[in-house]
Design brief:
single chain; about 425 residues; alpha/beta; about 25% strand; binds zinc ion
Length: about 425
Amino acid sequence: MRKIFKCVLFLIAFIHLACIISKAQQYSLLIKGGHVIDSKNNIDAVMDVAVAGDSIAKVDENIDPATALRVINATGLYVTPGLIDIHTHNFIGTIPNRYLNNSYDAVAPDGFTFRCGVTTVVDAGSSGWRNFETFMNQTIQHSKTRVLAFINIVGGGMRGGAYEQDINDMDSKMTALTVNQYRNLIVGIKVAHYEGAEWAPVDRAVAAGKLTDKPVMVDFGGSNPPLSLEELFMNHLRPGDIYTHAYAQIKRRMGIVDENGKLRPFIMDARKKGILFDVGHGGTSFSYTQAIPALKAGFFPNTISTDIHTGSMNGAMKDQLNVMSKFLNMGMSIPALIKATTSEAAFAIKHEELGNLSVKGVADIAILSIEKGKFGFTDAVGTRLEGSQKLVCEVTIRAGKVVYDLNGIANGAK
Ligand SMILES: [Zn+2]
């Protein structure tokens, strides 16, 4: 009897202790002392961020380390929402001669995202309505990175060459039906690479956009003579549509900066109308002759993205942080850079639950450092810009889990 009594007492004490411990450690992760930039919530200050499970639990000036199972000391580092890259190519596959559609030239998201603080990518039209489901099964369902997509107005997707010139395969209704079938994954419609002088590809993409209430992302192709950029913005696109490759200097396409280095006046009107300007660096789509005068005229991008594929990632583009570092060294501020890759990117794809550190939101977080030194940044034509600052990713957290930790700062016990 006495023994049983002792056992019960012991059990009660044990349960009580367990309760105290679990109450004390209510957070699975605490990021302490970092400079938090969360543009959506107007935070630009040294703060602590607590995570419980897969969600943000608290953002405050001082959160007790005893309340967390794991503590990351982020002193001297930037803590931001997980970055969003709204222009990537991830439709990996094994079909030859398919350019970025179920092909060898696309790249698997997890191979390049987390090491750059990126937690969400948006494939920019690699698939069309005919093969979006293959893309979903092959890439989206097998990636730890969140993968969303613009689908191409071309039913066969970004197959390259003649396939992307076939107006007969640009079907607004079938595209809209597919978008509506997968509304959470498909963020909009892409039109790209068209070389003819017709407006039909843009107009059909916009028609699909109207049917689905989704934005259109435009790669303005190239026609001879070039189609009018002003007409595109003012007569064909809607507020919220996205002009990617904004700083490209490409034959047969009108640049946003004219031959005399002046920003064309209608570009500001287009911005006022609500057209969004995205970097989409890519292999050939970013030039200092466009970017430097545009930035000097106060024309900064709405969103910064890579246009990553095997053809761009080993050239001037490299990765998201390298592209952001170019803009940092051209004079864009850190808060503006982070906004362009978090809350503004989320706004562009109409997924405003992402790109912020709001309490109860998903805990996608990047911890970044800025290296000081002598660095070189090239553009698509090989012009080199020297810079003194470079962004580096220290830690990436996806849905509350540490998925990348460059120097092991998330590994240690508290
Ligand atoms: Zn692209």
